[in-house]
Amino acid sequence: MPQLHYPVTGLCRHPQPSLPTATRFRNQPLPLKVFTRVAVSTVLFLCFGVRMCLASSPPAAAALPTVQDEQTVQDDQDGRKQDNKETVVDKELEEAFNAWKSKTFALTVPLKVVALRGSIPPSWIKDFINSQGRRMKFNVKYYASLENMFSDPSIPFTKGKIGPASALAADIVGIGDSWLKFAINKGIIEPIRDVEDQEWFKSLDDKWKVYLRRNCEGEIDPKGDIWASPYRWGCMVIAYKTNKFQKHKLAPVEDWADLWRPDLAGRILMVDSPREVVGAVLKYMGASYNTNDINAEVNGGRDVVKHNLALLAKQVRLFDSSNYLKAFGVGDAWVAVGWSSDIIPAAKRMSNVAVVVPKSGVSLWADLWAIPAASRIQTNRIGGRIRGPSPLIHQWIEFCLQSARALPFKQEVIPGASPSHLQGHSANVPVELTKGGPRINGNLVDGAPPPDILERCEFLEPLSNSTLSDYHWLLTSIQEPGHGLIHKMYQNIISVVKFSGWFNSKLT
């Protein structure tokens, strides 16, 4: 039985049949046999190696595309998942951005205004909000009186605190012109910056510019700063009951001299402001409200002024700025002397009342916009104005000075006149817009004095220390029996001096 021989090839593992050794190399020389054996082995090795490679290679090659296809499919799936994730993220970001845009605090501009109740026509607020759109946050706070409004801003300077409810936290505050010197001197307000480039300032009459340009002491100074802007003004007026005058056949009131008429003794009511009471005497004597040296500028000097002031005190039944109109409505008084902002609304509620501006001229009053000096107060309280003034301040001021804003004054919705009216002309308003509602009898034109009288009217300028001494002397010199009302007025002024130190401001 022949044996099988399995040569070790190193590459092929398949067994091949082999001839017996004695048979293959019989009758052959030894070297030839060796050579033949090596050659046969080599041939067998090559043949079987090629066969094995051909047999094994196709399956491996066929398997490669399958792996690549699977990888491609996986990559496509991963790519679609990534795209889906990015789409979701984009939608989330877009939703978050839209939500941010909808929040008003992110894009609104604030404007907080503080003013005297009844000094701003309601239509102004509505029209200004409409002109600015939804991106403005407008807030307005009213005070019942100038005294209350102006005492509030001064509190933080004494206590070193400021809260969101304080008038000092406002962007802009309305004050009376008689308080301007006090506000400047105490550092409660700050100058309005860059006014020279503002259209509203360019359009102001020079009379306004001179009056509002002050130094740091509050004195009128051509080299000073502009500290405020006007938005309403008026004047002193005299109201009288026409039915009483007709019944008793009295001549109508036309000028200051009528207050000294014997037939009106005890029938007159008047405000208790020293500037207005002494000023009426000065105008009666042909002098100015702003007389600085009474002895030098008034005929007869202080003695004559004192005499006429004493006569007026006998004529006046009540000196009282708070209650004189109540007494005028229900009492036996026939004449009331006061500010147009007080008298015109009262006269509209009454019948048979005429309101006149004295021919020789009167004092003028004005309501002004000023910027509180909030930057002086160090605060970290929420709501305190630690930022600068609102960028809408100049827009608000310019809006209030537009000619269209004069309509509520012409319609007598509120008393007063537009600042442009001080120049001697007013905006042309259709007659049909001014119809309706009770009209005031008298010589007022659109809430202001007639042009010929307006020329003789004047704003109350700050008084010098020497003039203040003259006023003090005049008030104290007539404190005699029968002059109780003047005594009451003087005591009211002294109490203000003692407890608040506002004597100068009350007189200016």
TrEMBL record:
One of its GO terms (biological process) is polyamine transport. It is found in: Periplasm. One of its GO terms (molecular function) is polyamine binding. Pfam families: SBP_bac_6. It comes from Glycine max (Soybean). Residues 65-85 are annotated as: Disordered. Keywords: Periplasm, Signal, Transport. The keyword Hydrolase does not apply. InterPro entries: Sperm_putr-bd. This is Uncharacterized protein.
